[in-house]
Design a protein that fits this description.
Length: about 240
């Protein structure tokens, strides 16, 4: 924890020493992909499920956020809530199919890749909504309320640097809390087992109430990971 706080403080002070927009932009995308890596580790690192569906959740949420802002007139940050809920729903549907048939390792990866490819083809060919391969032109910007100034739009690499840094820090904290919660501990116990873990799992699965809910425990981190993976999207919308 102390190491994490120290690293966060050092990164927060970096823009004071680095004036290059190019360097800050590299850090911005590093933080964004860091969020994706942390949430992916929640699935693969602790439950042992190699998913290829993660980028699809990221992309669908980005499109959903923009479309809600443009067509529903929602404020930028408010639009992230239903898009996050949509990401969770999408993950629950795909996860339920995979966990229902107890898919693992290669089979789990292939099925999630198939769903991801299906979404990619829909995005590329639904021109009236997604504008196909040309993508969408994002004109709106997220805003923050700053004391003494009022609502301020996020503009420039420095502002985006801090937005993505805070988003990464929050993601790490949420994932840590999930892993140490009542739903995270059983999920971690079901990752690829070591000899010691095999004994724990064997004894745990002898309890009917636990063995009957294996897929449910795996679905929790899967859904949480999908919800957290969608939060970097506003920073890409610039």
């Amino acid at each position: 924890m102390k190491l994490g706080i120290t690293l966060f403080v050092l990164l927060a002070a970096l823009p004071l020493a680095v004036r290059s927009d190019f360097v800050l932009t590299i850090f911005i995308f590093t933080f964004i992909y860091g969020i994706l890596a942390v949430t992916f580790d929640l699935i693969f690192g602790f439950t042992g499920q190699l998913t290829m569906f993660h980028p699809a959740v990221f992309g669908v949420s980005a499109y959903a956020t923009h479309l809600l802002v443009v067509h529903a007139g929602l404020p930028f940050w408010l639009a992230t809530l239903p898009s996050a809920a949509g990401a969770v729903l999408l993950a629950v549907v795909v996860g339920s199919i995979c966990f229902k048939f107890r898919l693992k390792t290669f089979y789990f990866a292939v099925v999630t890749l198939a769903f991801a490819e299906m979404i990619r083809l829909i995005v590329l060919n639904w021109n009236s909504v997604t504008n196909g391969t040309l993508g969408l032109v994002v004109s709106g910007r997220p805003t923050f309320w700053w004391p003494g100034t009022g609502w301020v739009a996020v503009r420039g690499p420095v502002a985006w640097y801090y937005v993505t840094l805070v988003a990464l820090a929050v993601t790490v904290l949420v994932c840590v809390r999930v892993l140490h919660s009542w739903m995270g501990r059983p999920s971690g116990a079901r990752s690829p087992p070591s000899p010691v873990a095999s004994t724990v799992i064997t004894r745990a699965t002898s309890i009917p109430a636990i063995s009957a809910s294996t897929s449910r425990w795996r679905s929790w981190p899967w859904s949480c990971s999908a919800a957290r993976a969608r939060w970097p999207d506003p920073s890409l919308a610039r």
